[in-house]
Amino acid sequence: MKDNSLDKRLRWLIFFRVVIATFLLGITTFIRIKETEQSLQAALTPVYFIIALTYLFSFASLFIPKIIKNIRPNIHIQSLSDISLITGLVYVTGGIESIYSVLYPLVIIYSTLFLAGRGGLISASVGSIFYGVLLDLQYYGVIQPLSLLGYDYNYEAGYIFSRIFIHIISFYIIALLTNFAVKQEKMARDLLEEKESAFDQLDLLHKSIIESVDSGILTIDLNGNIKSFNKGAEEITGFLRFEIINKKLDDVFPVLSSMLNKKNQWKQGGRFEAMGSGKILGCSVTPLVDSNRKKVGNTLIFQDLTVIKEMERKIERNKRLAFVGEMAAGLAHEIRNPLASISGPIQMLSKDLRLDETDRKLMQIILRGKDRLDGFVKDFLLLARPKPSERRNINVKVIIDDLLESLRFSPEWREDIEVIKNLCNQTSIYGNKAEIRQVIWNIISNAVQAMPEGGKLQIKTREVFNDTKEYLEIRIIDNGCGIEEKNQAKVFEPFYTTKKNGTGLGLAIVNRIMESHMGKIRIKSKPGKGTDCIVLLPIKP
């Protein structure tokens, strides 16, 4: 990077040398055109020669850096050549009378810029020697500079000495002042680089902090345009930064923006909850101000609370179930004892007494009611106070085949229901056989009940990977009445049912068993088109 900068500066030096030579060429040509005397026009020929040498040296200077890589000897060569050319120009334009001695300081300045104070002092010394020797040789008559205007060169020693002395002093003053300016500029540049480095580090730290937090952070200006969007915001919303920068918040998050405007959160600030991108977001609004404490926008910080809210919901449900469980133990005891006292005598009477058909039907109604009430108590206890079950590798295919065979003899079965099985080669899972059987039975039973006029019952299995774990996916699909969208979130709640004779415990028990097996269950349904129930059960412990 530094070599490229020096090379660029050297090219600028060559460019300015060519510009000055061209300027001299223009002045000389102008004088030649205006002068009519042949002798004065002939005196301009050495000036053209010096200008030609300058052009030639400038061209050669383009190749010097490729031959001499070190910048110091390179600049010394160029400064010595320039001083020689300037001395020659002074000589051919009148020596002591020449005005072109003002070009020496230019060489001293660029030598100082490239090589600091030492380079400037060397150029000042060489320029002083060359100019002093030229004037001394002229004074003693060794050389006779050309005169463009025919001046007579009769000067006293004091005048020659003063000219040389003034030039030498001016050369060294220019070298020292340039060196001082260069040092000040270097100090300022170093300080600026230090400040820029500190600012870059601070900016990097700021960006690292903003990008590292899990919370989403976005800022908007006073016109509602999104100006920044961190990585956490990308992960929560699913939008990429480049997709929404400089877009209106109303266009990208209309629901969130509407809530912010409706509740006047932009002015009030504080925390609130909102819906965004299908998630529950915990939001916080703070004003964005500049260094003068003037408001320039707003900062919106938000977190995805969907999982937390789901956990809170589960904790609340477990609290309710725990409370219900305490009641269930005593309630079951109080219900089962009277049931046992009712069923025993009824069964004995039905054996010992000769009952007519009507009385026998009444006995059967009482026994069925007792069995139904006893089953309800068992389900209620299983939901409220599940017991640790023994688990091992079980064959799901055997369970499904056995349940389908049993289903054909159940009251809900319809002969016009078509059963389609598509089972994969993976049939083994890890769990409790009785509980997995109950899960599949409850779901299949619900599917059959949803098709009172008949239909298709599909049972599919496949091996899937979810969250780096291996599962067996069981899909039970029907084309029955379906479930309305508003009710789909309630189907796993205890005692929620849309059936006339349902208890609302079937899917609640299924959900409880799935949680105990570290499995997953979800339902996709459309009213009038059917229901797709997807169960994920772990293959390995």
Quick synopsis:
The protein has 541 residues and is of the alpha+beta class.
The percent range for strand residues is: 15-25%
Order of helices and strands: HHHHHHHEEHHHHHEEEHHEHEEHEEHHEE
Count of alpha/pi helices: 18
Q: Got a strand count?
A: 12
Helix content: 55-70%
Multimeric state of these chains? Answer: single chain
What's the Cα radius of gyration? 49 Å
Which class of secondary structure composition applies to the elements? alpha+beta
Average pLDDT rating: 78
Distance between the termini: 60 Å
Largest sheet, in brief, is:
5 strands, antiparallel
The general outline is rod-shaped
What does it look like?
The structure is a single chain. The protein is of the alpha+beta class. It has 18 helices and 12 strands. The strands form 3 sheets. It has a 5-stranded antiparallel beta sheet with strand order 2-1-5-4-3. The protein has a 5-stranded mixed beta sheet with strand order 7-9-10-12-11. Strand 9 and strand 10 (469-478) form a beta hairpin. Helix 3 runs antiparallel to helix 5 and helix 5 packs across helix 6. The chain starts with a helix and ends with a strand. The model has no long low-confidence stretch (mean pLDDT 78).
